[in-house]
Amino acid sequence: MKPFGYGLGPSRAGESARSSGRFVGRGTLRGHHINLRTSRVPDPPSRPQGDCQENFVVKVNYEPEQAATLDDLNLASAFHRNLIRDTKITELRAVQRFMLPYILNPTIKTDLLVVGPTSCGKTYGMLIGVLQHCIHLSVHNAKPSERRPKVIIIGASQEAVVHVYNLAVNWSDKVGIFVGSAIAGSSSGQESNRFMNYGADLVISTMGRLHDWVSDNTIDVSDVDFVVFDDASTLITCTEFERRWHFLIDRIPDKCRLFTLSSTWADETRYQAKPYIRAGCNEIRIQSTVNEVAPFSLNPAVEQHFIKVKLIDSILKAIEIIGDHTERPKTAGEKARPPKTVVFTTEPDHAAMVTDSMRMWDRFHSEKAHFRMNVACVHKGIKSNNRQSLLAAFQNEFEETAEGIDVLVATDHMATGIVAPVDLVINLDFPPDLASFIQRVGRAGRDRYRGKAFTMIDVWQFDTWSGDKKKALVDVINATKNVPGCTYPDELLQLAIAMEMEAREIRSIGCVEVYF
């Protein structure tokens, strides 16, 4: 069997995790115009973990069961060993203590909505639960070719779906279930053949490819128990999502339970999701203990810094931030490698320009600096296979001869696909909506590591901002103002105060609250 590259359809449990799941990403990537060096560099500083404990409070609207450790879940022994091997964690995170007993309880027939910040453990908890469900039912399947999916996970982006697929393949090693993929951009012939030959207990998919395979009867969804929306706030805004979901729901049995995972559940998201959330749906909400009254929650392990800077100076400011967070090498003449950094911008053309500018600086100015950086650009306009290679190179762990990427310039479309622990997130602009901001800064502070996010604000262009964008900025300030270490320019604090006063005045006269 070929090593897993991108969406090969069902993967048979029993094959080694190395041959079926992990990206290696050791190529030189010269075809993507990346200047990758193999010269000796000092080891970068370890990511600050410190006392990064779970600063979350969980709120539910039902009488919950709880589990504290993996041992409390009575998982299949081989599955339990795989989790210990890959995650090295035996204690469950806050949200998982409520999610997993709910998912695994066969007497519960209602849907579940889970809302919480990125990196709080929603996706891992969901995946553990549905894999155990498939393992429990797999003994009833007579032949692999007759397997029909019991669970379907639908993700918002190709990169995020590939990451979940890789996790599922590794965790289900030698447990007797088949994990299938239906991912846009992958080889449709390979996916189709593997479904025909092996079937699948669990299908991990993008919405478009899943719709195609169900339409031509490659995938039979008549016996599905669970459907999972991963990153629902992004998923439900995708093109043609509503039409494709109505097509699927007509073919999914009434017994099927819907699990919805989202990083934000603002008014707009709640309104858009209303057609898909059925009556009686139970809710689990995860809030930061720093600010429990905020309408959404950001990861408190990520320091938020807002910087007033003109747009024309934003690239040099980003390089300055990277340099300030790069430790100076102990040996004279060496060049340090910067911490893993993601630089976000809105448009692909701007992302390409930023990448070229940073490479130009690295070529002509890094001799006077104490660091050098490998920079790459990734956005929706790049072919999916190339995007996967770039992300794999970025996610490589540091080694003295490693060929990896230090700084990744990305657009909002790629935010959910970057899953490696990131030390710095730099926003060259404020995104157009709150959900995009949450996904951007959520790249830092993952896996219980600490991180920092810097957002550049051109206050001289406030007049060109939409009302929704200004409101999103104020919401972010209000949600993070009590987080230790967060900083803001005076102009932003004044804007937040002014908008709060205007909102109170509107409410006091009984009008609908409208911003700008």
TrEMBL record:
* Residue ranges constituting the Helicase C-terminal domain according to the UniProt record: 317-496
One Pfam family matching this protein = Helicase_C
Q: What class of enzyme is it?
A: hydrolase
The Helicase ATP-binding domain is annotated at: 103-283
List the GO molecular function terms: ATP binding; hydrolase activity; RNA binding; RNA helicase activity
Organism, scientific name: Panagrellus redivivus (Microworm)
Q: Fill in the domain comment.
A: The Q motif is unique to and characteristic of the DEAD box family of RNA helicases and controls ATP binding and hydrolysis.
Q: What is its EC number?
A: 3.6.4.13
What name has this protein been given in UniProt? Answer: ATP-dependent RNA helicase
